Amino acid sequence: MTDTRHSDRADPDDRAVLNCWHAIGFLDSLGPTGMRTRLLGVDLTVRRHRNGAIAVRGAGRTDPLPVAERHGCLWTSLGTPPAAPVSIPDADEPDRRLVCCGSVEVHASGLRVVENFLDLAHFPFVHTGILGAEPETEVSRYHTEIRRDVDEVWATDCRFHQPQAAHSSHTGVEAQYIYRVASPFVTLLYKSCPNDPVRPDVIALFIQPTAPDRCRAHPVMFLIDDSSPQAELIQFQQRIFLQDRIILENQRPRLLPLDPRAEIPTRADSLSVAYRRWLKEKQVRYGAVHTAASLRALP
Predict the structure, then answer these.
(1) What is the CA radius of gyration of the chain?
(2) What does residue 283 show for φ and ψ, rounded to 5 degrees?
(3) Cβ-contact 222, 233 below 8 angstroms
(4) Is the link from the previous residue into 135 a cis peptide, with omega within 30 of 0?
(5) How far is CA 223 from CA 92, 119, 130, 203, 234, in A?
(6) Is the confidence at residue 265, as pLDDT, over 60?
(7) Which of 128, 213, 267, 296 is the most buried (most CB within 10 A)?
């Protein structure tokens, strides 16, 4: 029987992925002694010491991996990451609620999961009655850019009519969106909040790529909502994500094509186009397929 575990590991030259911080689980779900998990094809052992310190080690490595605790998650890296994981200034506001929504296994590339998160057009068809509904299916023109000063992808001026934009919504609204891709496997959504006319809710999706075609998604919300029960907020977000998982696990190929000839975009896909172009510029390989010839060879 062929051992495919080593082939799941990231290429040593895939620095844009190896040098990222990756969320590998929620801090509140970490057991008293630790856990085992997997990142970029490498088995990880997480141990909590008596003094509360957390150490992460990767199979076949002698030195411990870098560790950070932020946004309710435990983060690590297989390379040389920045000083800290993604900065989310809104998360530090004292009246925001941190809602960790449970980790979900997805049999699809983590890049596919990020791209799905960025897609406005699927709302009426996948999240009917919640984030969208027919016949209001048109995606209005919005602005997309790669912000070179911070090396991130942003989309602004996004809006979409939604029957229930948030758990605390009671009527349909035209929701205002801003999307931000902070690293290949970290994306955020700033969404108009039903409880505050100025400050948006923030929904983050931290993806843990375990294999090129598999991942664990860690959704986190930073909400202005002091009344909704925590369990109901989690259930609302999980319902949406599980609807997405059905679509994601039926997409082919499971890897994300980066060749512009592989799939034909529409005007509504300008954010996806920018994300793929940015990944290609960064030479991201893990979870991606770069050429049409490689795409034809996939099952």
Answers:
(1) 19
(2) 60, 40
(3) no
(4) yes
(5) 11, 21, 18, 8, 12
(6) no
(7) 213
- The rounded distance, in Å, linking the Cα atoms of 40 and 16 is 13
**What's CA 278's distance to the chain center, in Å?**
16
Residue listed under structure tokens 């990756």? 22
Residue 48 phi, psi (nearest 5): -105, 125
For the packed helices 110-117 and 230-248, what is the interaxial angle rounded to 10 degrees? 120
Q: Count CB-CB contacts under 10 A for residue 109.
A: 27
Q: Please provide the DSSP assignment of the chain as one string.
A: ----TGGGSPPTT-HHHHTS-EEEEEGGG--SSEEEEEETTEEEEEEE-TTS-EEEEETT-SSPBPEEEETTEEEE-SS---SSS---GGGG-TTPEEEE---EEESS-HHHHHHHHT-STTHHHHSBTTTBBTTB-PPPP-EEEEETTTTEEEEEEEEEEES-SSTT--S-EEEEEEEEEEETTEEEEEEEETTEEEEEEEEEEEEEEEETTEEEEEEEEEE--SSS-HHHHHHHHHHHHHHHHHHHTT-SSSSEE-STTSS---GGGHHHHHHHHHHHHTT--TTEE-SHHHHHH--
Structure confidence by residue, pLDDT tens digits, 84-109 = 999 999 999 999 999 999 999 999 99
CA angle 8, 186, 227 (to 5 degrees): 130
pLDDT digits (tens, 9 = 90+) for 189-235: 999 888 898 999 999 999 999 999 999 999 999 999 988 999 999 99
Domains of the chain as residue ranges with CATH: 88-297 (3.90.380.10)
Residues sharing a CB contact under 8 Å with residue 83, sequence separation 6 or more, in sequence order:
none
pTM: 0.90
Amino acid making up residue 202 = V
Which of 258, 238, 178, 217 lies closest to 22, judged by CA?
217
